[in-house]
Design goal:
heterodimer; A: two-stranded antiparallel sheet; two-stranded antiparallel ribbon; globular; B: mainly alpha; ABC transporter involved in vitamin B12 uptake, BtuC; 0% strand
Chain lengths: 292, 332
């Protein structure tokens, strides 16, 4: 029973990282209908920023995290301006290929700069287990969970209460109508990319700390799984991304612990296929009637 | 068939034979080394994969992100068939063995395509892409973890029976088949689904039937491509059939032009040679490759040929038209 509870907490922690990354996918998809395949690489870039700052200075963890998130936000805005904006009216598949191109580009740029071997992430959060009864939780697991939840709440308040947040919801609802209402669409898209990338970087830093290393291809698998999470919850929906992230993290951890660690990826992707077949719009998605 | 089309076929057959003879002569005289010969074979395998994906994505309009999965099914089935044939029928000619193995691979991939396609093709747009992506990953994990495929250590001892000659002619046959298919009654039905699914259904096209058919044919041809790959490389590692492999094939299709077979052929040639030609840049080559990909997409989002096909006749006609226009201007 204790072991099971432990696995649940691990699952929540892994899930919260997926949820953070999935938020970036879902926000971008909601606003410009693009599967941003470069998002996993933005997450990787975030982890590398934290790595560079941490080894070259003695800043405490919150400042390292802040710098990494700001840098990643800038990377996100630049990617959107240079690569996606010229293709906003092109066929969607061209934009998709461009996203894949950007993803490859970032991966190989990191490879050229830092070489392929994994770098050891400095100890940013001191590792000592916290005991609650006979339950043992690592500080890293706990920090990950708490940080993720805090930022999700901030995001929720931002989107519901502030003006830019409302603009984001308006643009994702109907781009043309929001232009008529006087919303600056370009600025709103930039903000979306900035927030999505910063959250992705947070996920990346936490992922890097959990596995104690960073490497150029670290973004691929978590990126893919976070994307699966976004689709599972209902792509374009922010609560969906969070729910999907936790579901995927939980299933992965439980299947690794109780079924087989080799088959856990197949279980995650298999589940996605099954869910999409029965409810193509995801768990929280609404069915939209197609207009002729 | 009217004369113009016949003439076109004649020209194309002559060009293909000329290319074949030219390559044969160059290989015989040693101008093309074994290394280059390998690249040529990879180009042709990529042509098979890209044109088949083009049928699903370009002509049928269904974005697929798991083509490497079908390739993997074909590669492993073909390899296992060939190993079994070799053990049971000593002295079987290589060509017969290859044809039987590829046929089994094509059928197996088509069946997998139907199993995936029947439920998945009900969904539209990005969802099909995601399901096929998931399927590709599942296939890879399955191959990695079962005994029959050699698991993560890879599959060894595959008969090396793909040669330049048979790969070349199989590629020609595949492209010819796809060309005839897309210009037939069935092909027009497939195109109508891409243009407007609802309208197609309204005029009586059985959309589900043709979607599954197109998808299954694309899968089975990808299986043939995978089989040729297995019999050339003689060793299979499940991790070569990952998500990036599917993406590579998709990039060839989009860059060549979705719905253009000649575009896929040209892009397959360019994109197979490019990473090899950039080899002297070492670590920078994939950086350059991805950079060029982004640039090409930004400036030519529809791909090299768009949905059009390249033909010598069309090339000649355009040349004549330009010449006539020039002559007219001079006379005035």
């Amino acid at each position: 029973m204790i072991l099971f509870l432990q696995q649940i907490i691990n699952g929540l922690s892994v899930g919260s990282v997926y949820a953070l990354i999935a938020l970036g996918y879902t926000m971008v998809y909601g606003i410009i209908k693009l599967i941003n395949f470069a998002h996993g690489e933005v997450m990787m870039a975030g982890a590398y920023f934290a790595f560079v700052v941490a080894i070259s200075s003695r800043f405490p963890f919150p400042i390292v995290l802040f710098i990494s998130m700001v840098m990643a936000a800038i990377v996100g805005i630049v990617i959107e301006k240079l690569a996606y904006k010229p293709l906003r009216n092109a066929p969607r598949i061209s934009a998709l290929i461009t996203a894949i191109g950007v993803s490859l580009f970032l991966q190989n740029l990191t490879l050229v700069i830092f070489k392929a071997d994994p770098k050891i992430m400095p100890v940013l959060i001191e590792k000592k287990p916290i005991n609650i009864g006979s339950l043992q939780i690592g500080t890293v697991t706990l920090t990950t969970l708490i940080l993720a939840i805090v930022f999700m709440v901030i995001l929720d308040v931002f989107i519901k209460k502030t003006k830019p947040g409302k603009a984001m919801r308006a643009v994702s609802e109907d781009k043309d109508a929001s232009v008529l209402m006087g919303i600056n669409v370009n600025k709103t898209i930039s903000i979306t990319f900035a927030i999505g990338s910063a959250l992705g970087a947070l996920g990346g830093v936490l992922y890097g700390i959990t596995y104690t290393q960073v490497y150029p291809t670290m973004g691929i698998m978590p990126g893919l799984k976070a994307f699966v999470a976004a689709v599972l919850g209902g792509i374009g929906l922010i609560p969906g991304a969070v729910l999907g992230g936790f579901v995927i993290g939980m299933i992965e951890t439980i299947s690794k612990a109780y079924i087989s660690s080799q088959w856990s990826d197949a279980i995650v992707f298999g589940l996605l296929i099954v869910v999409l077949l029965f409810k193509p719009t995801g768990i929280l998605g609404k069915n939209e009637k197609e207009k002729v | 068939m009217d004369r113009k089309i016949l003439k076109n076929y004649a020209i194309n057959i002559l060009v293909i034979i000329a290319i074949y003879i030219l390559l044969k002569v160059l290989m015989g005289t040693g101008v093309i080394s074994r290394y280059h010969q390998g690249i040529i074979i990879f180009i042709m395998i990529n042509i098979i994969l890209a044109t088949s994906l083009n049928l699903a994505t370009g002509f049928l309009g269904q974005l697929t992100l798991g083509h490497a999965g079908f390739m993997a099914v074909g590669a492993y089935v073909s390899a296992m068939t060939a190993v079994a044939l070799k053990a049971n029928f000593k002295g079987m000619p290589d060509l017969v063995m290859l044809i039987i193995s590829l046929a089994v691979a094509a059928v197996a991939s088509a069946l997998v395509g139907i199993v995936i396609g029947v439920p998945a093709l009900r969904l539209r747009g990005d969802y099909l892409a995601i399901i096929t992506l998931g399927f590709g990953e599942v296939i890879r994990v399955v191959i990695n973890n079962i005994k029959a495929t050699g698991g993560a250590q890879g599959f060894t001892g595959i008969p090396k029976i793909s040669t330049f000659d048979n790969v070349f002619w199989i590629t020609v046959l595949v492209v010819l088949f796809l060309y005839r298919l897309t210009h037939s009654r069935q092909g027009r039905a497939i195109l109508s689904i891409r243009e407007d699914e609802i309208a197609a259904e309204a005029v009586g096209v059985k959309t589900t039937h043709f979607k599954v058919m197109g998808f299954a044919i694309a899968a089975s041809i990808a299986g043939i491509g995978g089989g040729l790959y297995a019999h050339y490389i003689a060793f299979l590692d499940p991790n070569t059939f990952n998500f990036m492999r599917s993406v590579e094939i998709l990039v060839i299709v989009v860059l060549g032009g979705m719905g253009s077979l000649t575009g896929s052929i040209l892009a397959a040639i360019v994109l197979t040679i490019m990473p090899e030609a950039l080899r002297s840049f070492a670590n920078y080559r994939l950086l350059l490759y991805s950079f060029m990909l982004i640039i090409m997409m930004i400036f030519r989002p529809k791909g090299i040929f768009g949905t059009g096909e390249f033909s010598w006749q069309g090339f000649y006609d355009r040349y004549q038209m330009r010449k006539n226009a020039l002559l007219k201007r001079e006379q005035e």
